[in-house]
Amino acid sequence: xxxxxxxxxxxxxxxHWWFRARRRLITSLVTRACPDRNxxxxxxxxxxxxxxxxxxxxxxxxxxxxDISPEAIATCRxxxxxxxxxxxxxxxxxxxRSFDLLIATDVLEHIDExxxxxxxxxxxxxxxxxxxxxxxxxxxLWGPHDAVNQHRRRYRRAELAERxxxxxxxxxxxxxxxMCLFPMIAALRLxxxxxxxxxxxxxxxxxxxxxxxxxxIGGACLQAILALENAAxxxxxxxPFGLSLLADARRxxxxxxxxxxxxxxxLPSPADGPLIRHPICGRHSKSTGNTFLGRPKP
Length: 298
Prior knowledge:
By secondary structure, the chain is of the alpha/beta class. The protein is 36% helix and 19% strand. It is built from nine helices and nine strands. It has helices at 3-12, 17-33, 50-57, 70-79, 114-124, 144-148, 157-166, 182-199, 216-234; strands at residues 40-44, 62-67, 83-86, 99-105, 125-136, 169-177, 244-251, 275-277, 284-286. A hairpin with a 6-residue loop joins strand 8 (275-277) and strand 9 (284-286). Helix 2 packs parallel to helix 9.
């Protein structure tokens, strides 16, 4: 992320309508997937720590954050209330099987070695641990906002699902998010892209992001729209399109990498099948072989 845009990001994260709506979505998913307030939770790419503070406010007592930006971690520490570390998401300073739940909102698209990052996240999660991932959707929507944020990619649904499965996760749920604003923003970005190509924008031109301050009334209205989407997702509905792509996955108990094995550990038998913890009751049961998408796993 460009330094100028990072400063805007850190300044707006607590109050901007988009950040607030995203934060409420994630915290609602956390409370459903991991209701135990003593669970170990890690926020990868925690930025200024707004999500960590929200979870602490909900009673979670063991939350940690990591971010590659020293500026973000400094801001987080200034605001207080969180255990945070400067570090790389592909090589984190945590022991294997340390966390029950890992959050990565708008992080994976920044990382060159995405497969390495996913395997690292798998490593630090306990068996059946939860991974919540949110990434920008649809490569066709690539624009100046992605360039300013130094994104490496936007994701297709099937692409993200395959990345997660390859890293040893069982995909439980996938949906788009920010559907209501999709038509307007998609049309705007596509129009900007065509205009830029026609005008032949030079390589040295400075791109501009979409993150700006909004009026109190406008922000409240937009946040209310996304609150409806959050409620729909809370009911288990899947949105057919949107600006972002949400995935809820769990570390498979029958997928163990070399780094995941501790002293005295044995590889589980494939015949046993993965044990999946129910997101509401917390009980474990054998996987049926089906995912939230309604298709058998390969």
